[in-house]
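Narrative of accomplishments. A recurring question from our advisory board has been how the design workflow behaves on a single, concrete structure rather than in aggregate. To address it, we present the structure tokens for one chain from the evaluation set, followed by the sequence designed for it. No filtering or post-editing was applied between the two.
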């Protein structure tokens, strides 16, 4: 752990703190691991998709519709959807195969630091400790 692109929370936090706070970063967030994804429902950062089938339908339809966030500092609304997210035209067999592939990523339990929600700051240390 601890490389430039690892999930190490300390290194990750330092990396995020160094990012420029500019409109180009609006809508950017951590892509979760797909390791053991069959066991980590619900999906997406809001938990709005309950099954892997729904996730595949979501990506097959082009990744949903994004409501642009409010403009920053009077500028235009920044785009938040990656240009790779386009309708895929997958047939039912291809969608099933993708679901089975994702299920095949099930294995040993992941280390706790890979499943931890790093999008919120850790709790402050208890006051009064020596
Ligand atoms: C058939 C193609 C794809 C499959 C099977 C797939 C699979 C998945 C799955 C299963 C998740 C949910 C993970 C979770 O919530 O624990 C996910 C989330 C995500 N994927 Fe994909 N993905 C595909 C295409 C893409 C593409 C093309 C992009 C970017 C260009 C992308 C970026 C993301 C991001 C950013 C998330 C996190 C979304 C969120 O938390 O709201 N995916 N993907």
């Amino acid at each position: 752990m601890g490389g430039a692109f690892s999930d190490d929370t300390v290194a990750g936090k330092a990396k995020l703190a160094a990012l420029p706070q500019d409109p180009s970063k609006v809508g950017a967030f951590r892509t979760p691991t797909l390791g053991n994804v069959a066991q980590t429902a619900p999906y997406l950062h809001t938990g709005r998709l309950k099954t892997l089938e729904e996730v595949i339908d979501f990506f097959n339809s082009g990744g949903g519709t994004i409501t642009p966030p409010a403009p920053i500092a009077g500028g235009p609304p920044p785009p938040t959807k990656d240009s790779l997210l386009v309708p895929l035209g997958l047939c039912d067999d291809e969608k099933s195969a993708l679901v089975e592939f994702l299920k095949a990523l099930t294995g040993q339990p992941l280390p706790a630091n890979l499943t931890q929600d790093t999008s919120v700051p850790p709790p402050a240390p208890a006051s009064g400790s020596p």
